């Protein structure tokens, strides 16, 4: 199935019928996974408690007593999935048509977030399809799977390294 410029689409409702000429846009594969940082390190002087239970009840005195100390916080990266939307021209010799132009990609992260997976969840974890957090040292991949099959629509590699980084700037975006 491909996108097409000036495609005739038939609409039928009860005894009414009409034809409409539309441009049908399809995402170009593979999709692009963009990470704010592909190498995640330890944040110097930022420690988080190590809890023995799976629950993270930060306000509980009992959880604090059960804690096994603190460990360094690992970096996080923002995740975006982008693609071009394309359609074939009527004349196959004409160049492919791009939705919004060939220099514009569409952010489809919200549409594919339930189909994203980290290959090795011991190394990194994906939170709500938007934030990748390091968990342990190593290399893993983030993949976007087709909702219809096991086909991988996008893939990128991320490393969690032993290097320590310092916070030089901290900002809030509203």
From TrEMBL:
Pfam families registered for this protein in UniProt: Ig_TMEM132_5th
Domain Transmembrane protein TMEM132 fifth: 32-165
Protein name, UniProt field: Transmembrane protein TMEM132 fifth domain-containing protein
Organism: Nothobranchius rachovii (bluefin notho)
Gene responsible for this protein: Nfu_g_1_009416
């Amino acid at each position: 199935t491909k996108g097409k410029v000036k495609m005739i689409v038939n609409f039928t409702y009860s005894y009414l019928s009409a034809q409409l000429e539309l441009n049908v846009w399809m995402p170009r594969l593979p999709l692009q996974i963009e990470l704010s940082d592909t190498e995640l390190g330890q944040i110097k002087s930022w420690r988080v408690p190590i809890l023995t239970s799976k629950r993270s009840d930060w306000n509980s005195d009992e959880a604090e007593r059960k804690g096994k100390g603190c460990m360094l916080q690992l970096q996080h990266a923002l995740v975006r999935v982008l693609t071009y939307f394309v359609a074939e021209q009527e004349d196959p010799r004409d160049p492919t048509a791009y939705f919004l132009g060939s220099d514009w990609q569409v952010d489809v992260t919200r549409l594919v977030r339930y189909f994203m997976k980290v290959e090795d969840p011991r190394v990194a974890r994906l939170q709500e399809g938007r934030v990748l957090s390091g968990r342990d040292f190593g290399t893993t991949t983030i993949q976007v799977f087709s909702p219809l099959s096991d086909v991988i629509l996008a893939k990128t590699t991320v490393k969690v390294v032993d290097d320590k980084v310092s916070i030089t700037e901290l900002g809030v975006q509203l």
